[in-house]
Design brief:
Blueprint lengths: L2 E2 L6 H11 L12 H8 L5 H9 L3 E3 L3 E3 L17 H15 L12 E7 L4 E5 L10 E4 L7 E4 L3 H9 L21 E3 H9 L19
Parallel strand pairs: 1-7
Antiparallel strand pairs: 2-3, 2-8, 3-4, 4-5, 5-6, 6-7
Length: about 220
């Protein structure tokens, strides 16, 4: 098993540390029915992810990484919006089934649940081993990395903070645009959509040069 990072910090402090690096100015409370989500998935969820959803919500970070929406379904729903938890979890489990999981992990593909996806087609999730979700490490299927599977001894909020502050030995993602990014910008998915539909790039505020164009 490839692991990196140190001891997990207190779940009560990790989100506060992340908000210092990435202020949630364009975030929004998702109002998630966590009881329904837990029933659907058969597990609880880490407290930092629950706090992330109430502080930031689901959305994108500089167009390079998306934190996905928790869904009360374990199967991908027919929806115009791709990339929710169910769809990305299905993708992550498919990769486990097709190429095998992380070395030395005695578990099956159902032991991963996705919480994010990168612009480099990496899938980020939790290795849901153990009874305490706050102890679940982050697992990444890195499309262009080798080995593809890497495990990080931290939760998702701390993983993001370390990504932005170069807190790992190397960039954990195929695309390095957020590696050491001093001022990452999060935009909630509804606001992201509103900006695109108004012809504005959600992250730069500049006009989208392709707005209104039709492609065959």
């Amino acid at each position: 098993m490839h692991t990196t990072g140190g001891d997990m910090p207190s779940q009560g402090t990790v989100l506060g540390a992340l908000t210092v690096v990435m202020p949630p100015h364009d975030g929004a409370d998702e109002q998630v029915d966590w009881d329904a989500v837990r029933r659907a998935w058969g597990v609880g969820f880490p407290s930092d992810y629950i706090a992330f959803m109430s502080t930031y919500g689901a959305g994108g970070i500089d167009g390079a990484l998306s934190v996905v929406l928790p869904e009360a379904s374990t199967k991908p729903a027919d929806s115009p919006d791709l990339g929710g938890m169910a769809a990305e979890t299905a993708n992550m489990r498919h990769m486990w089934e097709s190429e095998g999981g992380p070395d030395e992990v005695d578990a099956g593909p159902d032991s991963v649940v996705a919480w994010g996806v990168s612009c480099g087609a990496d899938i980020l999730g939790w290795l849901t081993v153990g009874h305490d979700p706050n102890e679940w490490p982050v697992v990444v299927w890195e499309r262009h990395g080798w080995p593809h599977w890497k495990i990080y001894d931290c939760g998702m909020a701390e993983f993001l903070r370390r990504l932005f502050t170069k807190g790992f030995d190397e960039c954990p993602l195929s695309d390095a645009s957020l590696w050491g990014e001093p001022s990452p910008h999060f935009v909630h998915w509804r606001e992201e959509r509103r900006r695109w539909e108004s012809g504005v790039d959600p992250y730069t505020g500049e006009p989208d040069p392709y707005f209104g164009m039709k492609f065959d």
